[in-house]
Input
Amino acid sequence: MYTLAFTVVLSSLSLLTGKASAALGKNNLYSDGLGPHYQFNDKLPFKGGSYVGVNLPSQCASYAASKHDDGSAYCAAASMQAVNVTFPDCSLAYTVCYCNEAKGIHMSLNDVLVQLGRTPTTLRDYTRFFLSFPDTGNHAVTWLPANDILVFGDESSEAGLTVFIHEQGHTVDQSFSTSSTFKNAIAADTCVPDAYANNNEVEDFAQVTVMSLYNDLFNAYPSGPSVSCMQNQLNAYQSNTRINKAAMTRTTCDLSIRQQHNHLKRDVQGRWAHFHSKVSKRDLETGAAKRRLFKETPVIIGVEMDIEAPSFEITDTISHARVAVTEKYVNPTPADAVGVLYAEPTGKQRL
Output
C-alpha cells in the first residue's frame, strides 16, 4: 500500500508457509515458501561485533508510537532503546532501535544484532534504521524510500534469516522491480519463487534476492525443483550491475553506498536543505552557518561531521548548495562542531 510519499512493503509468515494470493498469476516454484529450503547456516556465519548505547533517534520514537490493529502502540516510549553496532566488515555503525518489552513473541537484542551481522554487508549497506518489536506473530515491514526495516516477533531462526535478507532486498530494489525489464522477465517465465512472491513484482524481487544470494554462496540452488521456470527473472536480477553487486558477498562494505544511507549524514543533509535558502554568503564565510547547522542538527558525540558548501550562487541567499559530509570517530569537539542530542556512550559492549 502507499502512504503519502512513502511506500510500505510488507513481509509475513508467508515467507515460510507459502500462503499468499497469486496476483501475478504464476506457478509457485516452492509450495511451502523459501524458508525451509534456503538455509544459509555456516555460509553466513556471525563474525562478532560491538555496540554502544545512544539516545533514541526521533524516527525510531515515531515508529514505536505507531499503532497495531488493536490500537496499541508498537512499544512504550520508555521501553525503547537504541544502539550503534559495528561489525568487522564495515567501519560505519548501523543504528538498531529495540523494544525491550518482554511481551508476546520477541527477539533478544543480542539475537537481533547477530542476525543482522550475519547478513552480507553489501545488502546491509542500503539500510538506514533497523528496528525490532514484540508481537503476537512474526512479520516484517520495510519503509521506502527511508529504507527502514521493522521486524516483529522472533526471526532468530535459520529460516528467519531469509526474512532479514528479503527485507534488505527491498532496500536494494530502488524501483527496479517495477521496471519494464523485470516485469517483462516475469511475463516471460511460468513461475515465481513462491506464493508470497506471487503477490506482486516488489515481493517477487525480494524473494529473488534470497535466491540469488544463496546461489552466489553455494554456486547452486537448493536441491528440489528446477529454477528454469523463472530463469528470466534470475537473469534480469543478475544482469543489473548494481543489484547483483549487492547480492554478492564481499568482505567489506561499500562505503560509497553506506554513506548515502547512514542516517547521521542523511539527517545533516536534510536539515541543511531545509534552511539553506536562509543562510547568507557572509554566514558561510564566517562560519556562522556551520554553527547554526550543528545547533539545529545534533549528532552523536564522538562523531565529527565536516560540512562544506563548495559551490553557491553569489547572491544574498544561497539558492543551490552542494553539501559534502565526512565522518570519523574522534573525541568530543567544541559545541560548534558537534551536537549534543545523543548522550555520550556509557561503554562499548562486545557481542
Summary: The longest strand covers residues 80-86. Confidence is low (pLDDT under 50) at residues 1-7, 12-21, 265-351.
